[in-house]
Amino acid sequence: MSDSGKFSKAVVPLAVLALVVLIIIPIPVFVLDIMIALNMFFAIVILLAAPCVKKATDFYVCPTLIAASALFNMITIISASRLILVQGGERFDGRLIRFVSSLVAYPGDTVRLVVGFVIFAVLVAAQVLVITKGAVRIAEVAARFTLEAMPGKQMAMDSELANGTIGQEEHAAGKKALQREVDLYGAMDGATKFVSVNVKFSVCMITLIILGGITIGIAIHGEALFAAVGTYTSLAVGSGLLFMLPSFLACSAVAVLVIRAVRG
């Protein structure tokens, strides 16, 4: 095996190890902003690429990209939660989180804060109960139907080979494409479940930002109760939107890809 081949196989494990290191080692705020931007960018790319492929197997790396995006999203929200809790609501200067927080739930405006939190709760419910659950179900049904149809398709190709309708090369290529399709839908089913768990994890981390932030803000940073509630709720809503949107886009990409494949 060439050096380039060995390096390409080592890229994914090294990338995973690098992401895990980010959980242990605190990162600067500007690195967090870059990670959030990349996380959103990858999700948008996946969503835009899904409708452009002629058939599902042309986008064979989709399950890998979705799983990697979910892992990256999980690492990013852990890093963001640590920075928010360590630096405190007043000193935390993550630009993207601050910007989104100011748009939907400004801490100085009680009405706007409550409305922003309610809207965010509705979006979370829609994400968990409708989008993610629907994408998981679509991928699961597609994987099961594809696997159940595999023996019949194999028998049909064997019959065509025996009748001389297709040659040996076409028969081998057809079986390879069929196996590739089954593997794709099986991997897609697993990737959507990974995203589903990631969404629930994001909700847990957002709750931790609110409860942990209020406790730390009052006990350690000496913040007033209402100021701490407003600040950390605003940051939780802003960060929650930034971390829920990539999962939303990834699930939408899976739904689009599988539905287009079913419709042919």
Q: Note the beta-strand portion.
A: under 5%
Number of E strands: 0
Query: What's the story with the biggest beta sheet?
Result: none
Oligomer: single chain
Tally of separate helices: 7
Q: How would the global form be characterised?
A: elongated
Q: Helix/strand/pairing class, anyone?
A: mainly alpha
Share of residues in helices: over 70%
Helix-strand string: HHHHHHH
The total domain count is 1
Structure commentary:
By secondary structure, the chain is mostly helical. The protein has one domain (29-263). Helices cover 85% and strands 0% of the residues. The protein contains 7 helices and no strands. It has helices at 3-24, 29-49, 62-87, 95-104, 110-163, 168-219, 225-263. α1 (3-24) runs parallel beside α3 (62-87). The radius of gyration is 23 Å and the shape is elongated. The protein starts with a helix and ends with a helix. Mean pLDDT is 77; it is low at 1-5.
Provide tags for this entry:
disordered N terminus, mainly alpha, single chain, 264 residues
Structure at a glance:
The protein has 264 residues and is mainly alpha-helical.
Chart the SSEs and their pairings.
Blueprint: H1 3-24, H2 29-49, H3 62-87, H4 95-104, H5 110-163, H6 168-219, H7 225-263
Helix pairs in contact: 1-3, 2-3, 2-7, 3-6, 3-7, 4-7, 5-6, 5-7, 6-7
